[in-house]
Amino acid sequence: DSIVSLKGMGKVFHTKNGDVKALDNINLDINRGEIFGIIGLSGAGKSTLVRCINYLEIPTEGDVFFEGKGLKGMSELQIRRVRRDMGMIFQQFNLLSQRNILDNVCFPLEISGVPKPKARQRAKELLNLVGLLDREKAYPAQLSGGQKQRVAIARAVATNPKLLLCDEATSALDPNTTGQILDLIKDINKKMGITVIVITHEMKVIESICDRVAIIENSKIAEVGKVEDIFADP
Ligand code: ADP
Ligand code: ADP
């Protein structure tokens, strides 16, 4: 049962210096409930691949299917509904600096129409889940990198998405904090049943939490399989 299928997906950027083929004929099925890793060098196409999954970038060839439905023919409104089922976290956290962390977590709930008291209650539950309820009044600048990423995770899953997209989510963190954030992502995958796609250039991230992995090289999928099969010692 796949939650996301990429079929013949390609992406060409037209720039003043000519065309850049960022993705070439990507075929991939992500299973519901798994933690799927995508690893590759800088410039391989990883960010473009996740940004195509939620249609922040529109593929120039092929398409993305979410729960069996192709995104290509959808209206703007339908795309927004699909995006509501996808949370995303980033290397640089992207928190709202002028709001405290409770209000950061409330933000997506309010946008999707949850009444303020209910949004605040839900946001508190999520801050509790990520271990930061005692800092609800703090502003992002007062938090460490690991704490900021915890808030970003709480915000990303606030509306109960089916999929969590992680774009180099631990790349700005030290090894110890990276381990804690990966444990939290795994916990959320298990407890909330959210499928996770992890983009990284770091092997240890893949080895510590992913069920399956795709290696992306020069805009193409080079290999896909279970982590223990792909990275087994000969
Ligand atoms: P990665 O995330 O693996 O580092 P990216 O997906 O960011 O790779 O980039 C893949 C290729 O596409 C690179 O050559 C990059 O310069 C190019 N690229 C990415 N986004 C754009 C864009 N908006 N315009 C032009 N080229 C882009
Ligand atoms: P990442 O490695 O996470 O992709 P980048 O710094 O490469 O981060 O990209 C940041 C932003 O710049 C993205 O929105 C990406 O689409 C855009 N971008 C990346 N490469 C290029 C490029 N060669 N030309 C124009 N925009 C680019």
What would you call the structural class?
alpha/beta
| Poorly predicted regions | none
The average pLDDT score comes to: 96
> How far do the termini sit from each other?
31 Å
Helix run count: 8
Number of strands: 10
Helix content: 25-40%
What small-molecule ligands were found? adenosine-5'-diphosphate
| Estimated radius of gyration | 18 Å
Portion of residues in beta strands equals 25-35%
In N-to-C order, the SSE pattern is: EEEHEEHEHHHEHEHEEH
Major sheet: arrangement of strands: 6-7-8-3-9-10
Cα shape: globular
What does this structure look like?
There is one protein chain. About 35% of the residues lie in helices and about 30% in strands. The protein is α/β, with parallel strands linked by helices and about 230 residues long. The strands form 2 sheets. Strands 6-7-8-3-9-10 form a 6-stranded mixed sheet, with helices on both faces. It has a 4-stranded antiparallel sheet with strand order 2-1-4-5, with helices on one face. Strand 7 (about 165), helix 6 and strand 8 form a beta-alpha-beta unit. Helix 3 runs parallel beside helix 5. The longest helix has 18 residues, at about 175-190. The radius of gyration is 18 Å and the shape is globular. It binds adenosine-5'-diphosphate (ADP) (2 copies). The site of one adenosine-5'-diphosphate has 12 residues, from strand 1, strand 2 and helix 1.
List the helices and strands and how they pair.
Layout: E1 2-15, E2 18-31, E3 35-39, H1 46-53, E4 61-66, E5 69-70, H2 76-84, E6 86-90, H3 101-111, H4 116-129, H5 145-157, E7 163-167, H6 175-192, E8 195-200, H7 203-209, E9 212-217, E10 220-226, H8 227-230
Parallel strand pairs: 3-8, 3-9, 6-7, 7-8
Antiparallel strand pairs: 1-2, 1-4, 4-5, 9-10
